[in-house]
Structures are given as structure tokens and as C-alpha cells.
Design brief:
Elements (H helix, E strand, L loop, with lengths): L15 H19 L15 E4 L5 E2 L5 E2 L7 E11 L4 E10 L10 E16 L2 E14 L10 E5 L3
Parallel strand pairs: 1-7
Antiparallel strand pairs: 1-2, 3-4, 4-5, 5-6, 6-7, 7-8
Length: 159
């Protein structure tokens, strides 16, 4: 009790050496916790590589060109600029060069169609199961689409 009649808890005074020792032990513990060797840390598995497979069964990442018509070469995406290449989808803008096949394909002209390309549905590549490949491609024509193709079309990539 102090002179005013209030009951206050007694203050415990600690020698400076005890306080200093406690501070040093806390600092050492903090440094030790951050100094765990990399070999002792649990490694995260690396994400599977994500590719789009071309007509020649070659994996591609952010290709500048992509052949859609594997059999005759009459449809090819060119000048692709990838806005993203993520774990679920990849999106690019570019040009779809399509042969008008008039009067027949060998005499036809390639015409440009601005397009937004979206790759999606990654799945393990059967030939290389450790690699994920996109299995669909969506073409969204930003102006006109080549007849008779709709302005928004999705194809399966079974190469």
C-alpha cells in the first residue's frame, strides 16, 4: 500500500544484465529460426511446364505463329502477341491468315482477320505426361470472320 491508501502491485526491478541477456537470447532465437538451411525446407513441386502442341507434335510456349490447318496450311495465326500465359488460360491478339480458296485453294489468296486467341483446358500431354498442354483454342474475330466461320469459335487441339 502506498501513502495514498491505494493498493498497487509491487514493481519488480531487474538488473540490466538480466534484461540484456533476455534480449540477446530472443535475438539469437529469431536469427536461428530464419537460418534454416534450404535442404531442411520442404520444397514445393515445380509446376508442370505448360505448352501448346503444334501440328508437328512440337511443344510451343508463346508462339509468334501457329498453324491451324495442319493438313493443307490454309489457315495460320501470325503476329501473335501474348497478353498472358497462365496456369489455366493463355491469351493473345494477332491475325488469322485464311486462304479464301477462290476459285480453288491452290489459286486462292490469304486474307487477314484480326483475332483474339485464347488457349484453355490444360491437360497432361499423353506423349509426355509430365508436361501440361492446352487442349482447346478459341478464336474471337474482332472484325469480320472468314465465311462460313462464326465470329466466336472454339476448336479442340488434338495434335
Amino acid at each position: 500500500m502506498d501513502t495514498s491508501g491505494d493498493v498497487r502491485p509491487a514493481r519488480i526491478s531487474r538488473p540490466a544484465s538480466v534484461v540484456r541477456k533476455a534480449a540477446l537470447l530472443c535475438a539469437a532465437a529469431a536469427l536461428t529460426a530464419g537460418a534454416v538451411p534450404a535442404s531442411a525446407q520442404t520444397p514445393r513441386p515445380a509446376p508442370a511446364p505448360l505448352v501448346v502442341v503444334d501440328c508437328f507434335s512440337q511443344p510451343q510456349v508463346r508462339p509468334k505463329e501457329y498453324l491451324l490447318a495442319c493438313g493443307d496450311g490454309n489457315n495460320q495465326l501470325v503476329r501473335l502477341r501474348w497478353e498472358n500465359w497462365g496456369p489455366r488460360t493463355a491469351t493473345a491478339v494477332g491475325t488469322d491468315m485464311v486462304n479464301d480458296c477462290r476459285p480453288y485453294c491452290a489459286a486462292g489468296r490469304f486474307r487477314p482477320y484480326p483475332v483474339t486467341v485464347t488457349l484453355a483446358n490444360p491437360r497432361p500431354w499423353p506423349e509426355h505426361p509430365e508436361i501440361q498442354r492446352f487442349t482447346t483454342i478459341r478464336l474471337l474475330y474482332t472484325d469480320t470472320a472468314p465465311a462460313p466461320v462464326p465470329k466466336d469459335v472454339t476448336y479442340s487441339l488434338d495434335y
